[in-house]
User: Fold this.
Amino acid sequence: MKTKYPLILLATLLVFGQPQRVLCQQLSVQALDGKQTVLTKAEIEALPHVKVSASEHGQTAGFEGVALRSVLEKAGVGLGETLHGKAMASCLLVEAADGYRVVFALPELDSGFTDKQITLVFLKDGKPLDQKEGPYRIVVPDEKRMARWVRQVTALKIVDVK
Assistant:
């Protein structure tokens, strides 16, 4: 069976007689060389937690998750002192279950370049993200528009800009 997201398993459950799609809580990370790493929920949640407050549609919400840079480092993506030269022209492509995609320049994720906090969240106001948002979501508290606040994140890919 071919699927658009081969590393993310989808399941269908019957809840009150209605089919419900459930995303498994794994996250695929692809490095620039094409090497793929699949991180489990336990591996992601074992990373140092970050709490951020952000305004969403006029309401302030508290989010908890992990720094996106920590997820990339866990998967072997080089940041810090290794981020120089040609790697400066690389981007992170974030993909969602519905096909939505956004990019971040790698220096936006590196604390050596910026204090910007880009977070992969799994809790909102102390509760797990609902099916519409989760299991993972990108939150960028200081951005004026929420266009890069990706819901239902399924994959992170490092891509080279040519």
Q: What stands out?
A: The first strand starts at residue 10 and ends at 15.
